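TASK: fixed-backbone design
INPUT:
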């Protein structure tokens, strides 16, 4: 496992992040504590040090399992990320949302479940369209000054909100968001319209959730396996089938699994990107870990990029059209490209 810096920070994290949403069996699925421990052991033995969880995963059981595991291991070796926003109890009207009251309450509860004095990376989980971004940033900065949180990050939030937040934080001397967690995969590239260009501008690392599109990119639906995803979803429609078939073809050519191809495509983007790989079984994790050794050729990347390309919409597509026009009027963009 290689290590990368997380955003514009000096924090060193493994090139794959272990997602712990499946630690616990609430909801009728997931891994028992012993299986979760084995998964974390295998991840650590491979050089992995980056865990991702949330206050609501498995009704708090995910954090409890990680907390018990860390109690028997070197806490400082691991970089632990969790989240706040979603309701983890029904005690009061402010037990959810991005507001400062819920932030402080949620962090205190997470610290108890995780049995730790500090959270390395705290994500705002989902934008609530209610709380002012300056309230969020001041609260996060206070937690960082208190030593309860080390770095701030944000997830599932419009690009304009994140952009305003990081600009305001820079102006006020508050801690900026260093990572952006969004859905991103060969089947879900809409983040390339606004979110990913914004992340590149601010030097944020993108930590995609569902990098294998819920397993769709492993080819399981092509093999006739069933799942919780409906056939008409964007993971099982005709476009998804075409993209998955391209992944399968490349995997067959290289003699690797489909997940290796899908993950390596993501790990070799032109921006900082660390996929979150979830696992409820040890063989799932071991398969995903081998993605770091997979090498795709330029032809492979071209094939995957073309088959999964999306329309950027306005103004992205308009900019592309404008570039063509400008090139025909004196080669302006050619000169910029050379610089």
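OUTPUT:
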């Amino acid at each position: 496992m290689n290590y990368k810096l997380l955003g514009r920070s000096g924090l060193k994290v493994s090139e794959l992040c272990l997602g712990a949403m499946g630690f616990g069996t609430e909801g009728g699925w997931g891994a028992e504590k012993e299986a979760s421990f084995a998964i974390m052991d295998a991840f650590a033995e491979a050089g992995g040090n980056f865990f991702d969880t949330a206050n609501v995963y498995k009704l708090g059981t995910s954090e409890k399992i990680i907390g018990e595991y860390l109690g028997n291991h070197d806490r400082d070796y691991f970089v632990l990320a969790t989240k706040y926003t979603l309701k983890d109890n029904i005690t009061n009207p402010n037990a959810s949302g991005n507001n400062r009251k819920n932030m402080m309450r949620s962090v205190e509860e997470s610290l108890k479940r995780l049995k730790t004095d500090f959270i390395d990376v705290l994500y705002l989980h989902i934008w609530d369209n209610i709380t002012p971004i300056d309230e969020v940033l001041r609260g996060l900065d206070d937690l960082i000054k208190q030593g309860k949180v080390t770095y701030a990050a944000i997830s599932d939030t419009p690009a304009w909100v994140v952009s305003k937040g990081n600009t305001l934080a820079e102006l006020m001397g508050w801690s900026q968001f260093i990572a952006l967690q969004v859905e991103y995969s060969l089947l879900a590239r809409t983040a390339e319209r606004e979110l990913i260009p914004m992340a590149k501008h601010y030097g944020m690392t993108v930590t995609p959730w569902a990098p294998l599109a819920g397993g769709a990119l492993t080819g399981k639906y092509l093999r006739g396996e069933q799942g919780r995803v409906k056939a008409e979803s964007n993971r099982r429609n005709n476009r998804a089938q075409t993209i998955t078939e391209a992944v399968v073809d490349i995997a067959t050519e290289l003699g690797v699994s489909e997940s290796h191809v899908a993950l390596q495509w993501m790990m070799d983007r032109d921006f900082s990107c660390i996929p979150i790989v979830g696992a409820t079984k040890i063989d799932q994790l071991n398969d995903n870990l081998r993605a770091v050794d997979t090498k795709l050729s330029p032809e492979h990347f071209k094939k995957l990029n073309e088959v999964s390309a999306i329309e950027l919409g306005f103004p992205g597509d308009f900019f592309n059209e404008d570039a063509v026009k400008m090139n025909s009027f004196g080669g302006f963009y050619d000169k910029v490209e050379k610089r």
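COMMENT: The longest helix spans residues 238-254.
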